[in-house]
Amino acid sequence: MAVFLSDSAEDTLQFGEEYAKTLKCGDVVVLNGEMGAGKTVFCKGVAKGLGIDDEVLSPTYAYMNDYGGKLYHFDCYRLRNGGQAEALGLTDYFYAGGVCLIEWAENISDVLPETYRTVEIIKTAQNTRKIIYE
Ligand SMILES: Nc1ncnc2c1ncn2[C@@H]1O[C@H](COP(=O)(O)OP(=O)(O)OP(=O)(O)O)[C@@H](O)[C@H]1O
Ligand SMILES: [Mg+2]
C-alpha cells in the first residue's frame, strides 16, 4: 500500500500516467471512490501512460470503452449485479489480455476475477485527493 497526495486534476492525471508503468497486460484494477472523486481523470492518465492517443471519455452509457484491446475502461455504476455484467458479455474482457480499469466495481463484486489491484481515491477537499494504491 502506498499513498499519493494529489493537489489538482492534473496531478491525478500525471499520477495515472506513472501508475501505468507498473501495469502488465491483463491486469485488472478496481477504482474505488465516490462520485466526482477522480476515477475517470485517473483513467485518462493511465491511457496516456499506455500510449493511447484517443480521448478517454466516461463510459457511463456504454458500460465499457475498448481502447484498441490495450485498455478496457468500465463504468459499472448502472449495473445492479454481476449477472448483468455477465449477460452483457462484459466479464469476458477481464481475461482478454488488455488492462482493465473498473469504476463502481462494487456493483459487480460477485464476478470480479480472483486477483486484482485496487486504487482508492478519497476526496479531501475541493481540489485535493488522497490516492491509496498497491
Ligand atoms: N485532485 C484532483 N484529482 C482528480 N480530479 C479532481 C481533482 N481536483 C478536482 N478534480 C475534479 O473532480 C472531477 C473528477 O471527475 P471524474 O469524472 O474523474 O470523477 P469520477 O470518480 O470518475 O466520478 P463518477 O463516479 O461520477 O464516474 C473533475 O471535474 C476534476 O476536474
Ligand atoms: Mg467516472
Describe the structure.
- With about 130 residues, the chain is α/β, with parallel strands linked by helices.
- The radius of gyration is 14 Å and the shape is globular.
- Strand 3 (about 65) and strand 4 form a beta hairpin.
- The protein is built from three helices and seven strands.
- Helix 1 (about 10-20) crosses helix 2.
- The model has no long low-confidence stretch (mean pLDDT about 95).
- Helices cover about 20% and strands about 30% of the residues.
- A seven-stranded mixed sheet has the order 1-7-6-2-5-4-3, with helices on one face.
- The protein has one domain (about 1-134): Rossmann fold, CATH 3.40.50.300.
- The structure holds adenosine-5'-triphosphate and magnesium ion.
- Adenosine-5'-triphosphate binds next to helix 1, helix 2 and strand 7.
